[in-house]
Design goal:
This protein is of the alpha+beta class. It is built from six helices and eleven strands. A hairpin with a 5-residue loop joins strand 7 and strand 8.
């Protein structure tokens, strides 16, 4: 009896796995139809579906290039859920530096920025500057963080541009892509 239950369960699991591996996501179909890696904020995709370029098995960080509605470059980013009703990830004050330097975004041409901290499509920015936040002994409470959100939808544009390992000189190569109109295709 137990053998039969295990056999039936095993077959059901294998069937589910086979079916799951055979689908093409809506986002992939949209990307093929558009013929682009430019993503609109209104498109709902999983993180896995958003990443294009680079070796998929690479542990190299994803490169995000973006334009903001306002200059939030000195403000601390947090990750919100899809509905933008709660913060799901935020840095510890000690996480804002790499060595002695803050992990601020790098300015690119035409108002674009290169992420150096770990933003994504669901990022919001806090009223805390990197300097103010890094001086804290511990992260603020969740209520304080939620109350300090400046803009839940801060991006005019956000683009995935492969992985950091894809670049030898990331700033100059991204500036060339911007100049050549790569982000507008």
């Amino acid at each position: 009896m137990m053998r039969r239950i295990f056999l039936n369960t095993g077959c059901a699991l294998l069937t589910c796995l086979a079916l799951a591996g055979c689908r093409t996501s809506r986002a992939e179909k949209e990307m093929e139809k558009k013929g682009t890696d430019i993503l609109e904020m209104s498109e709902i995709m999983t993180q896995e579906e958003r990443i294009r370029g680079g070796n998929p098995s690479s542990t190299s960080p994803v490169v995000y290039v973006y334009k903001m509605k306002a200059d939030y470059s000195q403000r601390v980013p947090v990750l919100m859920n899809e509905e933008r009703t709660r913060i799901v990830s935020y840095p510890a004050p000690v996480d804002l530096k790499q060595g002695s330097e803050f992990r601020l975004p790098t300015p690119l041409i035409e108002g674009y920025w290169l992420d150096n901290k770990g933003i994504s499509f669901n990022t919001a920015f806090l009223s805390y500057t990197y300097e103010e936040y890094a001086a804290l002994k511990e992260a603020p409470s969740m209520d304080e963080l939620m109350n300090s959100i400046l803009d839940k939808y801060p991006f005019e544009e956000i683009h995935v541009c492969g992985r950091r390992a894809d670049y030898k000189d990331i700033v100059s190569e991204l500036n060339k892509k911007i100049k050549d109109g790569f982000l507008r295709k």
